[in-house]
TrEMBL record:
UniProt GO molecular function: protein-glutamate O-methyltransferase activity
Root EC class: transferase
Annotated InterPro entries: Bact_Chemotaxis_MeTrfase (IPR050903), Chemotaxis_MeTrfase_CheR (IPR026024), CheR_C (IPR022642), CheR_MeTrfase (IPR000780), CheR_N (IPR022641), CheR_N_sf (IPR036804), SAM-dependent_MTases_sf (IPR029063)
Ranges for domain CheR-type methyltransferase: 8-283
Keyword field contains Ligase: no
Record-given protein name: Chemotaxis protein methyltransferase
Binding site for S-adenosyl-L-methionine: 85, 87, 91, 130, 156, 211-212, 228-229
Function per UniProt: Methylation of the membrane-bound methyl-accepting chemotaxis proteins (MCP) to form gamma-glutamyl methyl ester residues in MCP.
Superkingdom of source: Bacteria
């Protein structure tokens, strides 16, 4: 059987309004992300790559595929294409300063006798720069961290981003925001113009695919949760539910760190604001 020729690389795919509405509804059901009507061009551009890869001629054909109950793999590809993955090492650097200068010393000072457990969750870790920034901070700022039972959990809904983070290789230009002392200690420059994250960090960080709206299989509580520039894509009821779940899984007095444009105001009464999008669990 002769395979149908792929469409020309420059073929433009027109996304009808009703097709956008259907795709937006699917994305919200799968991830909780709400797409405004202004995102129609973004959806058209990102999913056009999937249509070309599949040899399709229009979005109607694509919807036939992703609405098939047996098409879980392509729905995952759709989610990967439509989720935003803007990140960087030590982005919003004050959060890492606070982690290293305030949170970790307090945890070390007040830990129960015989306890050395430290758990930090990077929820919505994208390609991994955030959890590796957390891990660098732990290694540099927590005295005798090697003697601790310390782990950083890094989760994202995008399977491609999880794989990138787990590999721990990045273009060298992306390392410019890493403090110089950390670059020398934790990043190995490769001949290919990339940097490799040190093995000690890759051992400290565990990458997992996770949908924040689904079940959370983690056992035990976290001391700190980073969930930055993620909930901004959810509606208010979903944000309220998510913040409540974060409070449930945080240890007493644990910290929640959110993005620069996010707030818990009128969404949760279980945290106190410490300033600069840093919150502490109170209930």
């Amino acid at each position: 059987m002769t395979q149908a020729p792929l469409p020309p690389a420059n073929l433009q795919f027109d996304l009808a309004r009703e097709e956008f509405v259907q795709i937006a509804a699917m994305l919200r059901q799968e991830t909780g992300i709400s797409l405004a009507n202004s995102k129609m061009d973004l959806v058209q551009g990102r999913l056009a790559r999937r249509l070309r890869a599949l040899g399709l001629g229009n979005f109607a054909q694509y919807l036939e595929i992703v609405t098939d109950p047996e098409a879980a793999d392509e729905r995952r590809q759709m989610v990967n294409a439509l989720t935003t993955n803007l990140t960087g090492f030590f982005r919003e650097a004050h959060h890492f300063d606070y982690l290293g200068d305030t949170i970790l010393p307090e945890i070390a000072r007040t830990r129960p006798a015989g306890s050395s457990r430290l758990r930090i969750w990077s929820a919505g870790c994208s390609s991994g720069e955030e959890p590796y920034s957390i891990a660098m901070t732990v290694c540099a700022k927590l005295p005798d961290w090697q003697c601790w039972d310390a782990r950083v959990l890094a989760t994202d809904i995008d399977t491609n981003m999880v794989a990138t983070g787990r590999a721990g290789q990045y273009e060298a230009s992306r390392a410019g925001t890493v403090p110089e002392s950390y670059r020398k200690r934790f990043l190995l420059r490769l001949d290919s113009g990339t940097v490799q994250v040190a093995e000690v960090l890759r051992d400290l960080v565990a990458f997992r695919q996770l949908n924040l709206l689904g079940a959370w299989p983690m056992r035990g509580r976290f001391n700190v949760i980073f969930c930055r520039n993620v909930v901004i894509y959810f509606d208010k009821p979903t944000q309220r539910t998510l913040f409540d779940r974060f409070a449930d899984i945080l240890a007493p007095g644990g910290w929640l760190i959110v993005g620069h444009s996010e707030t818990l105001f009128r969404l949760s009464d279980r945290f106190e604001a410490l300033g600069r999008t840093i919150y502490r669990k109170t209930a």
